[in-house]
Amino acid sequence: PSALREVLIEVPNVRWDDIGGLEDVKQELREAVEWPLKYPKAFERLGITPPKGILLYGPPGTGKTLLAKAVANESEANFIAIRGPEVLSKWVGETEKRIREIFRKARQAAPTVVFIDEIDAIAPARGSYEGGRHLDTLINQLLTEMDGIQENSGVVVIGATNRPDIIDPALLRPGRFDRLILVPAPDEKARLEIFKVHTRRVPLAEDVDLAELAKKTEGYSGADIEALVREAALIALRRAVSRLPREIVEKQGEEFLESLKVSRRDFE
Ligand code: ATP
């Protein structure tokens, strides 16, 4: 019973619109996850078998977790998230039980998206790691659970990794994670969309040109862009706090908002 309580079911609030770029990936997830969860009967009638498992792979900070949350939310599904490394460090001696519990919960709460972040930590290719008995059991349990997912039962597993190359090939067999989707680093157009998402609620001075920022941030991930915007906003806040009386800063008066504006200088 204690394990049961610790399986946290969430309803994420991320929407497709909160993710900049990645239009192809979103569409693929709509078709592979959202539609089957929302319209299982139609899939049955047409004899289409939706994937049970999807592996999102790509560089860090490119939105894999966001995508998994958004597809759960947009599918009106519950969301259970586990992190590979956490499973290893916290569940010592009871990993099998935990995995079983998670899938039981997922079935109970269906439709459910089970998200396994950094799945490479728990499912590296057998033989590629040391002292792997513990990991073997874990991988086997995961495979058993995935094989046991009934068609159209409303449970989908989404894994995420930066290292698809080290994942146990047994996980990629048909009926398991058989849909691989690349989540690439954002190009200039996608970076502009990401800047737009993250400045939605930030007061910007008129001299801020997001298109130019997108051009200048070659090599930045979505997470890097988010950090950049946050840092710029903090600089603006620091400036306001050091200049304005406390009442104004707390009241968020006109003058405060005005001085809080993030300007081009803050981004550079
Ligand atoms: P990791 O591989 O490090 O786990 P990830 O690919 O799962 O990273 P996320 O956790 O989804 O990346 O992204 C981290 C943060 O970066 C998000 O909370 C979000 O603020 C921002 N971000 C990343 N990609 C995007 C995007 N395409 N649009 C908007 N924000 C993004």
Automatic annotation (TrEMBL):
AAA+ ATPase domain residues: 50-187
Protein name: AAA family ATPase, CDC48 subfamily (Cdc48)
Residues of the full protein shown: 530 to 797 of 838
Entry superkingdom: Archaea
Similarity remark: Belongs to the AAA ATPase family. CDC48 subfamily.
